[in-house]
Amino acid sequence: MIEKLDVQKETEKAKQLTKAIRKPRFYRSRLDDYSDTLIALHRAGNTTAQIHRFLVKQMKVNVAWSTVYRWVKKNG
Prior knowledge:
There is one protein chain. By secondary structure, the protein is mainly alpha-helical. It has a domain at 30-76. It has helices at 7-21, 35-43, 48-57, 65-75. Helix 3 (48-57) crosses helix 4. The longest helix has 15 residues, at 7-21. The radius of gyration is 23 Å and the shape is rod-shaped. The relative contact order is 0.13.
């Protein structure tokens, strides 16, 4: 005997599963520890590349240039 498929119930299950999978994840950036310094450098007129070089050479923080760019764009 074949059970009838409850479409509404199955649709709701699928939506709940999708919601759980797509749950946003917020991770703290390693650049957040240097936020005051980075904002000061940006406001002083330094380019993203210069800030990146400063982080790598002076602060010994190994991050990609694009990470610095996105962080400055968001927080600077």
